[in-house]
């Protein structure tokens, strides 16, 4: 079996790929559901019902998609420049922490219209700076940023725990430790009344549009794309690699930090050490399913959110462990990678 | 006595739309040295890869001593006594000479490698064939010539009786190349039969018994070397009279680029060691030398990718020795890189994107940080028309262009700007005759228009044909320049061997 | 200062060091074998998780402890095979595939555990490996407690280091694996199959990783819970670079790291006012520092992470 490179990337294949990948994942996981003694069709039907069956579930799904859009954009922006940002989880938490801290005391007195953007911007800065450290280590010392960003996730999570049990602890909260809460008037208004869906969803869409424009139309987008495809050639053509990659780090980390910020300003209002069920890592899957395209990120994020919201409901209804959602998600990633192969290569016997 | 040891019959190999080998048939006799001659892209390496088992032919067969060779497995070729010395050495730099030689020769499940026996055999082969090596040395630390010896010993260690060498002298200086062919003669006396691939006529004439000429994937002719001539072979190789453009003498102007005591250190490989040169308006200065003598460092500092560690490099009286590529581009220096695939053009980008990648900063191609797409695309269309870039529209993915057309794109995007200085680093490497002629024509036209051009070339003929003055680069140092008229074979030979007077008149 | 010396002089510290080092030794060795062959296996965190679950479950269902280790190794090999097939013949990105494998293996292990095991207030437990006192040697003062009273898997880990070192340095198979990671074209040119070699190496390495995970549920602790691997896999990846891809140095690195970890645990009890998170952060910070220190000088296997495509030269 030989792989022959196609003359040009097959566009039809690129569009079909994520659907094929998802289909494969659902098929394989149907087997797992059957092992649990449940009819897969019933289970999937419950999932769809759980995600879209009512007005409330639709808003839940979309709410769940918001942080995934941001972390998906974060991964897409970074991977396109070949910066392997696996630290979105940590960047999310830093953004969340900064938001809680600023939103509780520092900016609580400012008018809402000024405070919220300011808080978001500061959170983005925090997330961006966090990613700039591993990227700087790579540029200066040649250290692989994959491992460093992964390790930093653990460090940041511990730090969040430290803050949430210490200086930022909410003394009034019962049960698990949580941070102080953001001031009530700084919380994001709801998009749909009597639901959790907040205007953060619109911010996420806006972010996707902005990223799209940057990547497709700007000099920065063109240069970072070149840097990701062929760093040597880009450097030869004059692209200042170090500066551009640090900028990518700022943008990518910033988007992940914004994910945390919006999650605090929107649905939760405070920080805990378990508020992210792996948004950072899921963002990578979202980005790959979208083939790193910002528009695809929105669609893929909604898909992943569907799986998770649906799985919770399905689990309550059928007893299938809700971890099936994580399995579907991870198999989708592997299937997507394989499918992407066929957009570039043809099989020849 | 002299029956054929290797018979190639009707070998055909296609890669998609490209037919690399088309019904190739010839044979190799016992004890002879056969040269496989052809220009770049003629299909020589593909053919050898098929014989050795790296590729599987679509049609045809290979017989060794009468027995058909099972296709697509180097193991079968090795077992049949065929050995290959690859053009790009198949060696692992981090491992020792011994390890590189013995890999694959022992059963994998053996509990302890028999190194003492291996050492003894290597020593014996080394002596018998005059290939001195240090088995304990790390291959990454060896010189190119030493590495080639290891490559050859690899084949001999596996008891090859048929040896295939792919462009063996591409990286050797003339004396080393001559030594190699003496060694090969010794081997045939010892019973081996040899095929070597080359595109160098003088080598083929001097060192082979017979020659097979490949052109466009087919056998164009077979000759007994003693009965043919370089002129005949050249014509057979190219198939039509492609005349390379001639340089006309003309007056040159003021110096545009000057280097004084320029040094560039590199972590790996030879750097530059206190070199002096200058390039004037309307002239081509050729830097000749066997690869690995500092050309890469020279190319890199002139591209802005590496910085001068000592000395000065001035362009129009401004010191550019430590500038970034972007700074050089802003000052209007044209640079054609050594490796068009790795540095010159990005395959996955469209032609128009590659055309303007270097110049995105300019107001012509961007406004307020946004790319001016239509301006960029019409610029690309212009280039396609003006430089005859075939198979391309502005939106074509650059990867689809042939080597020659990609090079024309790279050349064109530099020349379109009427640069005062151009660095042409191995501008025709890997191109066929037609493309070479086109590139030469453009360089000469730029010269006529007053550009100062520094040409780095491993092809002596090209350098002599194009350059007004020539300097040789040896171990990081530059010889004194000689004019084109003074550059005869003897003078050049001495220069490339490092023998020149240190006092100089430029 | 005297606290430090007291701690360092205690045999119980060094016994703990070996215990803490064991999963790391398996992890580093496993990752090292994969990388020497040219494949970065970021599936390690997930494979260790799956090994932990599979080994534990085997014992929970009535198998022997050794059976559990075997099953763990087999699940490791299965995921290793998946990673290898995707990254070697198919040539997919080793980074992203590895992450996918980690997510998949971990998710699958949680799913199966939740499906097959009833968890009450506390997770169910098994009877783990007991310390195996080597007769005679375990009575030696200090060394007896520190080195010769460990559990069987720890001895296995130490033996694995020796076997790995021998195979890589002295056998034709080891040479073939090493060369697959340096120049797979050279391997092919000498009649071997670099694809099969890489796949085999990744499977073997993944088996070791899984056994390392199983140590956590079958010796260090006696139950399984999600996220118990806690980033040990990533630490192992960092330690491979620190060890210059050599088994002997890998052992040293794992021991050094475990020493640090064991030490900070004891420091915690000595300094009850400092937030415990700071101590827990230390291993991860140390790993990053180790990476930075070694980065410049690292002699990376030349073909690491480069997909081998036959004919595309």
Tell me what the structure shows.
The complex is a heterotrimer of chains A (349), B (506) and C (313). Chain A is an all-alpha fold and 349 residues long. Chain A has a single domain (2-348), classed as ABC transporter involved in vitamin B12 uptake, BtuC. Chain A contains 13 helices and 2 strands. Chain A has helices at residues 11-35, 40-52, 55-80, 88-106, 112-141, 145-165, 200-217, 219-229, 231-236, 241-268, 279-289, 294-318, 324-344, and strands at residues 2-5, 345-348. A two-stranded antiparallel sheet of chain A has the order 1-2. In chain A, α5 packs antiparallel against α10 and α7 runs antiparallel to α12. The model of chain A has no long low-confidence stretch (mean pLDDT 93). With 506 residues, chain B is of the alpha/beta class. Chain B folds into 2 domains: 4-238, Rossmann fold (3-Layer(aba) Sandwich), CATH 3.40.50; 255-496, Rossmann fold. Helix content of chain B is 33%, strand content 25%. Chain B has helices spanning 44-52, 74-79, 97-102, 115-129, 144-157, 174-189, 201-207, 230-238, 295-303, 325-330, 340-344, 351-356, 373-386, 403-415, 433-448, 460-466, 489-496, and strands at 4-15, 18-29, 33-37, 59-64, 67-68, 82-85, 162-166, 193-198, 210-215, 218-224, 255-264, 272-280, 284-288, 310-315, 318-319, 333-336, 366-367, 370-371, 421-425, 452-457, 469-474, 477-478, 482-483. In chain B, the strands form 5 sheets. In chain B, strands 13, 16, 19, 20, 21, 22 and 23 form a 7-stranded mixed beta sheet that branches. In chain B, α14 packs parallel to α15. The termini of chain B are far apart. Chain C has a single domain, classed as ABC transporter involved in vitamin B12 uptake, BtuC, CATH 1.10.3470. Chain C has 13 helices and no strands. In chain C, α2 (11-36) runs antiparallel to α10, α3 runs antiparallel to α4 and α4 (65-87) packs antiparallel against α5 (94-116). The mean pLDDT of chain C is 90. The chains are: A mainly alpha (349), B alpha/beta (506), C mainly alpha (313). At the A-C interface, β1, α6, α11 and α13 of A face α5, α11 and α13 of C.
Q: Can you tell me the CATH topology of the largest domain in chain B?
A: Rossmann fold
Identify the biggest protein-protein contact and residues per side: A-C, 48 and 48 residues
Q: Do you know the CATH architecture of chain A? A: Orthogonal Bundle
Stated plainly, the CATH topology of chain A is called ABC transporter involved in vitamin B12 uptake, BtuC
Estimate the global geometry of chain B from the Cα principal axes. globular
* CATH architectural label of the largest domain in chain B: 3-Layer(aba) Sandwich
Average pLDDT, all residues of chain A: 93
SS strand fraction of chain A: under 5%
Number of strands of chain B: 23
Number of helices of chain A: 13
Q: List unreliable stretches of 5+ residues of chain B.
A: none
The gyration radius over C-alpha positions of chain B equals: 24 Å
* CA radius of gyration of chain A: 21 Å
Largest sheet of chain A: 2 strands, antiparallel
Strand order of the largest sheet of chain A: 1-2
Structural class of the secondary structure composition of chain A?
A: mainly alpha
What is the first-to-last residue Cα distance of chain A? 5 Å
State the domain count of chain A.
1
Unreliable segments of 5+ consecutive residues of chain A? none
Helix content of chain A: over 70%
According to CATH, the homologous superfamily of the largest domain in chain B is: P-loop containing nucleotide triphosphate hydrolases
